[in-house]
């Protein structure tokens, strides 16, 4: 089965934000009232109603010159996805394309995926049912999986007029990224391919002009140890030994202990705020 990758070369981006508009239009996402950031950037980061954001970064390069760096920011679709591991309802899964998607019929809005995403690209959206009660669902970029099913490319890719983004076979896109880095090294000495191994690689890979931290990205993101312990060890053994009802009670206790950021004190390598 062919695995696909969205390739993003930030050195070609001119900051037009067409990708943001295309994403909003295709996914029927509403407009948002946002605070004034004092710059051309419209959002600090992605939200439940804005699944990709164009970042504008003022950066002083090695020669002491000020330059603007741009980055199309959206879900990375990690191969080893922390959000998928911590979901207690198995509402998050990989598709045959490599995209990570959320089944809203299964999502209970617990927020564990939001807390454990190393890139902070998942958000909770509030809804009201017919009785006026509030409930929540996780939201993020889907890599336009519905378009892929129809033989189309992601909306953001098709609207990009500078060739910043492409979409295709994973091996071919990684090779293209590595070749591009070799081409631009003389201009951008810190240029690199961002496809972090700590999350098993990603299905959105970047050619970055500078170190990841310059773009607000973790240098060495990884799946939290607690998530690995829960999904790969505690959950399967618990289900085998305790049965479904008891496991649900134990699971609620364990996940609240493991995945509550305020209590667990576990940090990502090179993590922190991404915006």
From TrEMBL:
Residues given in the record as [4Fe-4S] cluster 3 binding sites: 75, 78, 83, 117
Subcellular location: Cell envelope
Transmembrane segments: none
Family matches, as Pfam families: Fer4_11 (PF13247)
Alphabetic keyword roster: 4Fe-4S, Iron, Iron-sulfur, Metal-binding, Repeat
Entry-linked InterPro entries: 4Fe4S_Fe-S-bd, 4Fe4S_Fe_S_CS, FDH_Electron_Transfer_Unit, Formate_DH_Fe-S_su
Cofactor note: Binds 4 [4Fe-4S] clusters per subunit.
Annotated positions binding [4Fe-4S] cluster 1: 13, 16, 19, 160
Needed co-factor(s): [4Fe-4S] cluster
Keyword Repeat belongs to the record: yes
Major localisation: other
UniProt entry tagged with the keyword Cell cycle: no
Gene Ontology MF: a single term: metal ion binding
GO biological process, one term: formate oxidation
Residues that hold [4Fe-4S] cluster 2 according to the record: 23, 141, 144, 156
Gene Ontology cellular component list: cell envelope
Binding site for [4Fe-4S] cluster 4: 87, 107, 110, 113
Annotated PANTHER family: FORMATE DEHYDROGENASE, NITRATE-INDUCIBLE, IRON-SULFUR SUBUNIT
Protein name, per record: 4Fe-4S ferredoxin iron-sulfur-binding domain-containing protein
Native organism taxonomy: Bacteria, Bacillati, Bacillota, Bacilli, Bacillales
């Amino acid at each position: 089965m062919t695995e696909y990758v969205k390739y993003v070369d930030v050195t070609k981006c001119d900051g037009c934000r067409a990708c943001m508009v295309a994403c909003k239009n295709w996914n029927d996402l509403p407009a948002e009232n946002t605070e004034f950031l004092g710059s051309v950037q419209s959002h600090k980061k992605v939200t439940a109603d804005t699944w990709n954001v164009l970042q504008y970064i003022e950066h002083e390069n090695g020669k002491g010159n000020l330059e603007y760096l741009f980055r199309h920011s959206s879900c990375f679709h990690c191969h080893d996805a922390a959000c998928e591991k911590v979901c207690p309802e198995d509402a998050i899964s990989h598709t045959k394309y490599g995209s990570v998607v959320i089944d809203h019929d299964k999502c209970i809005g617990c927020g564990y995926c939001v807390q454990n995403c190393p890139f902070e690209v998942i958000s909770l959206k509030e809804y009201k049912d017919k009785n006026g009660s509030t409930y929540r669902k996780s939201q993020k970029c889907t890599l336009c999986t519905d378009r892929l099913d129809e033989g189309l490319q992601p909306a953001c890719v098709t609207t990009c007029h500078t060739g910043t983004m492409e979409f295709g076979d994973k091996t071919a896109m990684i090779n293209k990224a590595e070749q591009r880095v070799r081409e631009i090294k003389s201009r951008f000495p810190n240029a690199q391919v961002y496809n972090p191994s700590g999350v098993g690689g990603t299905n959105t890979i970047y050619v970055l002009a500078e170190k990841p931290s310059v773009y607000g990205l973790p240098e060495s993101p990884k799946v939290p140890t607690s998530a690995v312990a829960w999904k790969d060890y505690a959950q399967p053994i618990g289900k085998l030994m305790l049965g479904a009802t008891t496991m649900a009670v134990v699971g609620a206790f364990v996940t609240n202990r493991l995945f509550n950021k305020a209590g667990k004190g576990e940090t990502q390598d090179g993590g922190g705020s991404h915006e």
